[in-house]
Design a protein that fits this description.
alpha/beta, Macrophage Migration Inhibitory Factor, 2 helices, 4 strands, about 20% strand
Length: about 130
């Protein structure tokens, strides 16, 4: 059950949030070869000067991403996801690529809990809710 967290230093419209979440969910499913019903997304909005990246101008829009995922995904898959997410953030949230930063945190399946069960270790093509 990935928890995909996005923080931006600007206000977003409801439509933008909906489009963004849909693209994020579909992209994760496609790249990581899994379903979508277990994907959790947080989108947090902050005021302009509450997020910074050292190389960005303080007036720039910023997006920080923390992607909590299960262990087992290759560096190549994580890199593909990172680059695709950076494109989505650029295209939908209008944040320049240089003003984005992604951190992956990997957990064992047992770290992810739903009311009915905890998740097992990741396997290609799985349905984690089955």
């Amino acid at each position: 059950m990935p928890h995909l967290q996005f923080e931006v230093n600007k206000a977003l419209t409801q439509k933008t949030k909906e489009d963004f979440a849909q693209q994020i969910r579909e992209t994760f499913s496609e790249v990581m070869q899994t379903g979508t019903e277990h994907i959790a997304i947080s989108l947090r909005e902050y005021e302009k000067y509450n997020l910074t990246i050292g190389r960005a101008n303080p007036n720039d829009d910023i997006c920080l991403m923390n992607l909590d995922i299960r262990e087992g995904r290759s560096l190549e898959k994580r890199r593909e996801l990172a680059l695709r997410y950076m494109s989505i953030v650029r295209d939908i949230l209008n944040v320049e690529n240089k003003n984005q930063y992604i951190t992956f945190t990997q957990h064992s399946g047992e770290d992810f809990h739903l009311i009915e069960k905890y998740l097992a270790s990741w396997q290609k093509g799985e349905d984690p809710l089955a």
